[in-house]
Design a protein that fits this description.
globular, 325 residues, 12 helices, alpha/beta, 2 domains, single chain
Length: 325
């Protein structure tokens, strides 16, 4: 068979892929039984060389820094891990890059009108700061463990690129500086260089042994920008912690939406590497405590009829997943 014939053959296979799969399924059912088909299917789907390994042990000497682009990302990604770390006497610090204050649907829900009043978005940011304190308290953290930077929600990509040295204007409330009290540096200008320096300063002061940060392939621009800001700041220090990235926003992820406390979470197949992804298993107590903490984020859980609840509760599972970098 020549090369042209081979190409034609594979084109035909590709064209009738669905039909071929259906035929193979029925053929397997008759020969192997249902269990054999399931094993074959998941081997084909994920690949025999892909592994979800166990997350490494946490020790009392660990100092864990969690980078959250928005308030609630710390619970979604690491609500169980936080509980385990505290039970082992490890130190934890959470850095919120933004207050998640550019959510129009949340503003509509809170104020019961369609007016885009800039003050309403600042009020949302203040509410979310309060929610973060209540949620992390459920897990065992205190105010001293939280750092709010107050940079612009949906603006971190701009700070990374166009506004690294020039001030960025917040799209919702039209200010080019942080208006919040109780933040790391009040009235800080919205510049990428300022966010970079804040993260560098925090890292050097805290000396983390582990950093939990957003995944670079996350579809939300604030998340991917948060990864690169953290990495850049870290490279300017001599500190070399273990890096574990979490994913929140990605197409068809999690595959099953809604509350499934008895199921495991897996990374998207396109991002499933051979050894990079790790699984941290939660106890029953940790699962329910994570769900309780997540429930404190009322502005996000109930901002639309379909509900942020439907998506956010998808991350309360038997495990949490991270990719090692």
């Amino acid at each position: 068979m020549n090369i042209q014939s081979l190409k034609s053959f594979f084109q035909i296979l590709k064209r009738f892929k669905k039909i071929i799969i259906i035929i193979l399924i029925f053929w397997s059912l008759s020969l192997l039984g249902f269990g054999g088909v399931i094993g074959w299917f998941f081997g084909w789907l994920f690949g025999s060389q892909q592994t979800l390994a166990k997350f490494p042990e946490i020790y009392s000497t660990d100092r864990i820094l969690i980078i959250a682009p928005h308030i609630d990302d710390e619970i979604i990604s690491s609500g169980g891990l936080i509980q385990e770390a505290l039970s082992r006497k490890a130190k934890i610090k959470i850095v919120y890059l933004t207050n998640g204050d550019n959510n129009y649907l949340s503003v509509i829900n809170i104020n019961k009108n369609l007016q885009e009043n800039p003050n309403n978005f600042i009020n949302l940011g203040q509410k979310r700061m309060k929610e973060a304190k209540e949620a992390t308290k459920v897990l065992g953290l205190t105010m001293d463990d939280l750092i709010f930077l107050g940079y612009p929600d949906n603006g971190l990509k701009n700070l990374l690129r166009e506004n690294f040295l020039t001030a960025y204007t917040h799209k919702a409330f039209k200010l080019n500086y942080n208006p919040y009290t109780g933040t790391y540096k009040e009235q800080q200008l919205y510049k990428g260089i300022n966010l970079f320096n804040d993260l560098k300063e925090i890292i050097m002061d805290y000396q983390p042994t582990i950093i939990i940060l957003p995944h670079p392939r996350d579809a939300n621009p604030d998340h991917s920008a948060g990864y690169y800001f953290t990495l850049s700041a870290l490279e300017e220090t001599e500190i070399r912690p273990h890096l574990f990235a979490y994913l929140v926003h990605y197409k068809n992820f999690p595959l099953e939406k809604g509350l499934h406390l008895d199921k495991f979470l897996y990374p998207p197949n396109k991002l499933f590497s051979k050894e990079g992804w790790l699984s941290f298993n939660l106890t029953e107590t940790q699962i329910h405590k994570k769900l309780e903490a997540l429930s404190k984020n009322q502005t996000q859980l109930y901002y639309s009829p379909s509900g942020g609840k439907f998506l956010l509760e998808s991350f309360v599972r038997k495990n949490e997943i991270f990719e090692s970098f």
